[in-house]
Structure formats: C-alpha cells, structure tokens
Amino acid sequence: MRMFSRWSYGIWCWLMFLWAVLTSLLVGVPAPRIAQRRAVVRFAARTYLWSTGTPLRVRGLERLPPGPCVVVANHASYIDGLVMHAALPPRFAFVIKSEMVKVPLANVLLRRLGSEFVDRVDRHRAAADVRRVVRTAAQGQALAVFPEGTFDERVGVHRFLPGAFTAAARAGLPVVPAAIRGAREVFPYPGWLPRRGSIEVEMLAVLPAAPDSSRGAANALRDAARAAIIAALGEPDLAE
Known about the structure:
- The protein is of the alpha/beta class and 240 residues long.
- The chain has a single domain (55-233), classed as Glycerol-3-phosphate (1)-acyltransferase.
- 46% of the residues lie in helices and 14% in strands.
- It has helices at 2-28, 34-51, 80-87, 104-112, 123-138, 163-171, 183-186, 215-233; strands at residues 56-59, 70-73, 92-97, 116-118, 142-145, 175-181, 199-203.
- The protein has a seven-stranded mixed β-sheet, sandwiched between helices.
- Helix 6 crosses helix 8.
- The longest helix is centred in the N-terminal third of the chain and has 27 residues, at 2-28.
- The chain is globular, with a radius of gyration of 17 Å.
C-alpha cells in the first residue's frame, strides 16, 4: 500500500509538472510583455506546489533591495528552479547553464523569460557570458543564480562558481544569499519520484557591494555568501 501511494503521488506530481510546463509555454511564451510571461510562470510554479501538497514558506522577502540585486541560492534538487520562480518576485531574471540551450522547449521558454545563459566549461565563452551578464545587471536587471552550477547525492554545499559574484562586484550590485531547505527531500537525487514534504526559502542578510572589477572583490562576495548559506543550512562544506 505504501509503495502504491508513493507511485500514485509521484505520477500526480509529474502530471502537474507537465501542466505547469504547458501553461508556461502556451500562455506565458506568447504574452507580449516579459513581466506577463514571468507572472504566468510564477503562477504555474505556485500552482504546482499547491496542487501537490508541497507547502512553500518564504522568509525574508523584505530583505530584497527594491532595485537591481543578485540572489544566490544553494542547489540540491531538480525542483530548485521551480521553487525559486515561485518564491521570488517576477522582476528577477535567472542565470542558467548554457546546456539548457540544447533543450528545445526549455530553450524557448527560458529565452522568453529573459534568462541569461552562461557556459560552465569553456573559460573564454564563460568570460564573454559574464561580461554580458554584467551589462544586463548594470542596466538594472535583478538576477537569480545557483552558483554551485550542479548537484549530486551528497548533502552539503559545493564550491561556488565565480561568474555571479564577478557580475555583482563589477556592477556594484548587492548580493542576497538564499537558503533553500527541504527541496532535496521532496525531489531526491538520484531518482525520479517526488516525495511529500515542505520547502522553505529564506533570504539572508544582504551583502553590499561597491563597483569593483578586481578578482578579490568578487571572491570576497562569493566567500561571504557561501559562508552565510552554509551557516543557515547547517550542512557540510563539500569544498573542503
């Protein structure tokens, strides 16, 4: 009976995820304004969480600066992107790994949402991508990033890639660390069946930044944000 219940719940979650994707594609993508597209995706993400009985608690939204900033969150599950779309105001653009360009429908949706694609492998392309993100940030766009870039079955926080912090330091944008709790338990890796559970997103203390193109300034932001997230999660440091 327990196995049947788990499979039934997992299949329901995937059906609702398919609904969320189709809604985003069929309603969000054709919308004329980017704010409307993001609002549709946020609605679809929140509806998915509600319909699957996955409570989402968001704490510290009042800490988000009213202007452009960079939110950096830990990454532990495939559901993290959906969670952050549900948690953050629709003014945020997400920085996505460039591999998603190869996924046809996801590519279309993410581009229409104003997402920024960043190469994680080729250093020359990565540098060009960071320069583009810096220009986007300097124009007043708030950004959301998963600086670990990937995740695995280990519990803890991996090393942070520098791109988001380089962009924040050069543009002088405040960095807001965000701790995601519960996503790993709701959608564990490896595996493809979601589980029942609740998720919490907490916005931590803002890290101010003055315009500074030095590597030291970016590294200082990276280390401070990572330390804050590790402390808030109480999870191991996997970079040690």
